[in-house]
């Protein structure tokens, strides 16, 4: 499988990523730091998106129902060289389904996530998956 995206920026302004029919704005200047995501935040967004996609995927494969999944991701950035050092996440899966095996879901997310596996080669990841009964 191959992927393709296109990005562009305007000097002293902002930038855009074109992915399929979506356009994602991001900041490249200090003036946009409070209003637009920066590249590091987009990176963490990709990480969280991978996990949420796999919750949906494994809800089918593991045969469980859920209403909502939400994730909070925090990371530590090192300065020299600039890179992510530690990523921590808490994934909450809202479900009444007794067949939801949280430990197996976490194991599958960490074993089969494309972005997850790419990231874990370069920094530590620590995560927690919680079932929240509604």
What's the topology here?
Layout: E1 6-9, E2 14-19, E3 22-27, H1 39-61, E4 68-78, E5 83-94, H2 102-112, H3 114-120, E6 124-132
Parallel strand pairs: 5-6
Antiparallel strand pairs: 1-2, 2-3, 4-5
Strand order of the largest sheet: 1-2-3
* CA-CA gap between termini: 38 Å
Q: Tell me the series of helices and strands, N- to C-terminal.
A: EEEHEEHHE
The biggest beta sheet is recorded as: 3 strands, antiparallel
Helix run count: 3
What proportion of the residues is helical, as a percent range? 25-40%
Radius of gyration over C-alpha positions, nearest whole angstrom: 17 Å
Uncertain spans, ≥5 residues at pLDDT below 50?
A: none
The coarse overall form would be globular
SS-derived structural category = alpha+beta
Mean pLDDT: 95
Strand content: 35-45%
Give the tally of β-strands: 6
Feature tags:
alpha+beta, 134 residues, 3 helices, 31% helix, globular, 3-stranded mixed beta sheet
What does this structure look like?
This protein is α+β, with helices and mostly antiparallel strands and 134 residues long. The chain has 3 helices and 6 strands. The protein has helices at 39-61, 102-112, 114-120; strands at residues 6-9, 14-19, 22-27, 68-78, 83-94, 124-132. It has a 3-stranded antiparallel β-sheet with strand order 1-2-3, with no helix packed on it. A 3-stranded mixed β-sheet has the order 4-5-6. Helix 1 (39-61) crosses helix 2 (102-112) and helix 1 (39-61) packs across helix 3 (114-120). The longest helix has 23 residues, at 39-61. The chain is globular, with a radius of gyration of 17 Å. 12% of the residues are buried.
